[in-house]
Amino acid sequence: MSRGKKLTLTAIGTVIALVVGVTVWILVANDFKFHEERVTIPGPRGELHAVLARPADTGGPYGLVVFVHGDGPANANRDDTYKPLWDAFAKAGFASLSWDKPGVDGAPGDWESQSMHDRAAEVDAAIAWAHTRSDIDTTRIGAWGVGQAGWVLPEVAHARPDLRFMILVGPAVNWLRQGEFALRTELRADGATPERIADQMARRTKRIALLRAGADYAAYLKSGVDDEPMSEARWGFESRNFRADSTADLATVSIPTLLVLGGRDRDVDVAETERVYRATMPPGTLTVKDVPDGTHSMTRNDIEYHPDGLQAFGRSIFAPRSIYVPGYLDALRVFAKRQTE
């Protein structure tokens, strides 16, 4: 065999070995310990298109963690970013249940037409559905939620005695105060001048005045308060929810609650959240986990604020669990397991 052919065969062999090695690595990294089942849940305003992720290593019945999304459109697995969380709960003996927001991936309805009470009604319907499943242990039902779920789950916890625990990640307390904090933080991160910040705060004050006055979308557009107006659907969403405040519901929560707060959260004033939760919730119910490097959703800082970057893509494919800050997934698993021991 000629030297050239030998080199060619060696190169081909090397490429094949690399491809096989990378493929095996990806398969191992994405070997989650759960099985997914597509289910349909009767909801308060139509069907909920959901995924039930059941632990792979046991036959049930399993405990259940109901997932509640934050703001924005979201499919059931939040573009696969929930899978490491489902895996953590599966290791604690819990199935996970999550659904496409209305209007997402073909689900009926429109999530921007919802109030926080509407979202709580969805969770209530999901828990009621869980009671029809023989593979779910309804004495072990908890809930996990991020961001906007902080205005949803305390209402559910107050209404449903069969909810055993809840985990809240980066929840705000008051809708308007959260919005101001997020806007200021975003402007500073963008390097806005003091003059621009003052202008944006003045526009915000006018926008809130319109909301308080019950202005319709036409009146909002006519005001010219925003150079780039929000959509009519978003204006409706803000109009329905801008008065949201979780304080009253928090005072009625009597179940174990894990509050996870990130020191790099740009969306929520986590210091205010911790202060209000500690002052409001009944003694003995609250566990606080402060994560100095945690972002709003507990993903790594370089991923949370650069979700389309090469590093985010690489981690999501080759090491999906590593998109989250160290210790977060273990904290979820340990807390859930402790609630049923």
TrEMBL record:
Residues 61-299 form the Serine aminopeptidase S33 domain. The chain crosses the membrane at residues 7-28. Keywords: Membrane, Transmembrane, Transmembrane helix. The keyword Transmembrane helix applies. InterPro entries: AB_hydrolase_Est10, AB_hydrolase_fold, Hydrolase_4. One of its GO terms (molecular function) is carboxylic ester hydrolase activity. This is Serine aminopeptidase S33 domain-containing protein.
